[in-house]
Amino acid sequence: METLPSAAERQQLVSFFLEVAAGQTADVAARFLEAAAWKFDEAVQLFYVSNESGGVESSFLPRQTNGITSAENMLASGSSVQGALEDEVRAPLPVVRDILNEDPAFFRSQPSLDVPFGISRHSAIWESSESVLSTSNGTHDNLASLYTPPFSLMFQGRFDQAKVEASLRGKWLLLNLQSHEEFNSHMLNRDTWANQAVAETIHSNFIFWQVYHDNIEGKKVCTYYNLFKLPAVLLIDPITGQKMNAWTGIVHPERLLEGLLPFLDNGPKEHHAFLLQKQKQRAAHDSAVINVAGKEAVKDDVEMVQAIATSLEDTRGPRPLVTDEESRPEKSHATNSNEKLTYPPLLEEPQGSKGLCTVAIRLPDGCRLQRKFLLTDSIKLLWSFCSSKLEDGLKRPFHFIQFYLGASRSLEYEKALTFDAGGLSNSLISLVWD
């Protein structure tokens, strides 16, 4: 059973109550305190609830008989107050608003997925850790900076604008379609696009455009080129929109450079000019073939008439047909299986970067060789290099074929060309046995 406060403590509680409930008398304060069993907090709440229901009613005021308050009346009045409180509807709780994280840097670091044209340079997720506000716990480390997109290479605009820009500048359009959910997309940013050789090649020969698959332009590209696996890298002809080459998944720098190598010498304009010239040559060739076929048909008819006339005039029977064929001696080989071919001596591979070129050679078995040569060296050193790498290189003759866009040419040992004059700088050729 709780003990009631002493008289001095009650007087102190009444004083506290009057400080809170300004304008009330000591009797009213004592009345509410007694109704709340002299609990100050409950008495104050009881007072404010009574005010909200229409003020302190007269029934709440203490009744005095001969200046002395009756304890029985207080208890009865307390019961009436509790009944009144039970009948009243409790006021709604006040609306409380709070911030879970007051650090503004937390909100700035959230990525924005609604980028209208592509991957924006100003997206806050790619800000460096130095630009993020420091807090009491230290500076926020922005891990996304490790996988920053190559903004220095990227064209900012829509897909159709990128094609127009590439067409005007006579460059191929290199497109990278990325996905937020695929970690390979971030690996491309970190390993492939950040590679110095790849970056220099793209900057000199291509217009680079990167986009996420879930925005407007990305969905358009996915639908047009029927892309299902991401990330994807496409090489686009900006004039016709034709897909010239494509890679999916993680594309390492060496693989990408090898795929882009045939497109470095000629841009899309030169490619279409070559196709037009080739089409004209094919049309002229077809016309010449038709004319030759017609002349041969007429010649066959004349010979048939002459043969019939000869057979009618010849009454002695058929004569044997004697043909004077020229003897064709068999092609003599310069060397037999026991003799070895001789090629110029091969010096050590030059070092450095000035005046050098790199040539990649694909062997008949699918393997690939690569070596650096001086631009002023003779292409005969290719035979010297490959003969030392092949088992039958000194016994069996061979030559090389260089492929262009839609065409090829043969490189023979007898040609006195340098790597610079032969256009073999940074090219890929194939070795073919004679």
From TrEMBL:
Residues 352-432 form the UBX domain. One of its GO terms (molecular function) is ubiquitin binding. GO terms for cellular component: nucleus. PROSITE patterns: UBX (PS50033). Pfam families: Thioredoxin_7, UBA_4, UBX. Residues 316-345 are annotated as: Disordered. This is UBX domain-containing protein. It comes from Zingiber officinale. The lineage of its organism: Eukaryota, Viridiplantae, Streptophyta, Embryophyta, Tracheophyta.
